[in-house]
Amino acid sequence: MKNIIQDTGLLTKNTVRMKNPNHVNEILNNLIIGGIQRLQVVSDFDRTITKQHENGIPHLSSFAIFGRCPSGTEQFLATAQELRKKYYPIEIDPTMSLEEKIPHMEMWWKKSEEAIKGLSISSKEIGEVCLQCKPSLRDGTKELFDDLAMENVPILVFSAGCGDVVATILQQGGVYLPNVKVVSNFLNYDSSGVIQGFKDKIIHVLNKNEYAIKNTEFYNLVQDRENVIVMGDSLGDAEMAKGMDNLKTVLKIGFLYDRIEESLPSYLDTFDIVLIDDQTMEVPKAIFDSVKNSHCE
Fold first, then answer.
1. 53 and 59 in contact (C-beta within 8 Å)?
2. 146 is catalytic
3. Which of 24, 56, 71, 87 is least crowded, fewest Cβ atoms below 10 Å from its Cβ?
4. Among residues 39, 50, 21, which one has the least CA distance to residue 168?
């Protein structure tokens, strides 16, 4: 068995943490043996495809960007800020179990959906605000997505954010490529352009594994792809591929920035690789390159 961790180089950086390097090395070898044709990628969006911060300033989430739309009311903005102030500390609280957090996350998203009902924010306005906010994709995201598209590796962007904003940012960043599918909270408009809520079942940060992936277009694309790289910044993201029953090898990569010292133990228990304050896609790309290069040998 090859020592992929040493061969890759980037996996020995001081920003990389692994609870069980031998197990990670075994997973990496299995990904390489499976090759490109057996690989798929499932990734969170906010603070996973986008950076967690820029010089210490947190990046706006897709819902926060939606809240910057001029057609949003003062009441909506006040409600959104109040909800985040109340529920975000719960989301990142390392002392609470996922089971304890779930009802709070359900309430946060339910109240958020109620808050957007009746707003008249067009897709054009969303596009303009996304350009103004200039959300930063992680360094190297374009290169990674281009390489994945070149090899026809399917990518599921599985987001608890605002799907319309997610799709717009991906398009503006040049990474909404034919192999990319988005499952998220897309806005439901009536015939006059007024938002009625979300189109489907609400996706929050801790129920992505419960969402019916089998009923999505993505599931049909990956039935023969038994190896997956999962990427996220929330503990709940680690289970995003759980709805797929054909999997043999799963590599879970977690991005950690908030409350690092307190949160690291639970992240190490949950993810195979934890990247500490790493605002790049260097490690995922190095892993993909290892699979691709071995496939070409």
1. yes
2. no
3. 56
4. 50
Amino acid letter for position 200: D
Which residue in 46, 164, 233, 237 is the catalytic one?
A: 46
Q: Which residue in the list 7, 44, 164, 200 is annotated as catalytic?
A: 44
CA–CA distance, 157 with 175 (Å, rounded to integer):
11
Task: Look up the pTM and report it.
Answer: 0.92
The tens digit of pLDDT for each residue in 251-287 reads: 999 999 988 999 999 999 999 999 999 999 999 999 9
- The domains located in the chain, with CATH, are 4-53+133-296 (3.40.50.1000)
Rounded distance, CA 125 to CA 104, Å? 30
Number of CB atoms found within 10 A of residue 221's CB:
16
Give pLDDT, residue 267: 96
Chain centroid offset of residue 280 CA: 14
Tens digits of residue pLDDT in 122-150: 999 999 999 998 779 999 999 999 999 99
